[in-house]
Amino acid sequence: METAQKQNDAVMDNRLSRLWKVFGFGTLLAVSCLVSYWLITTILAREYFASKDNDLVGGMWAVVATIFVFRHSILESAHAALSRTVATLLSFALCFLYLLIFPFHVLGMVALIWTSTVVLALIGRSEDIITAGITTAVVLVVAGVSHGPGWLQPLLRLVDTAVGIAVGILTSRIAPALDLVPEQ
Known about the structure:
- There is one protein chain.
- The protein is mostly helical.
- It has one domain (2-177).
- The chain is 80% helix and 0% strand.
- It is built from seven helices and no strands.
- Helix 2 (52-69) runs parallel beside helix 6 (152-172).
- The radius of gyration is 20 Å and the shape is elongated.
- The protein starts with a helix and ends in a 7-residue tail after the last helix.
């Protein structure tokens, strides 16, 4: 009888510990997103002359980058950050060059998605194709609807992404230190 009670207590302790880790990990991710958003929309928005809409898009972009790299381990976060950086740099370079010459057009968007897919596959980074494609689509569409020069969008979104990646990496290092990494 005593053994069964000890087993029940151990199971309950394990569930409570897991619940603590899950809630803590989720809270840390949410706070990380808040920090990324705040940095872009409050602090960095003062440094460049973008519209309020651009600031909000930038905040969203930083949050997405933070979520993308915030992982259960430092190694996973570093791998995600590398993946996000490679895909982002290629996409932003293609978008920047395209938008220097042409305005947004759906055919330009699909041509750049095709180009980034081929380049990434050829250099052995096929795992980055989806991120590059999404990045290209968002940057070009935002350039198409924003006021001001389209070529500015890739540059602004590059800053937003860098901030999001940095915040995600830094805060993902806190989770293991606080024992907030839930078992996968």
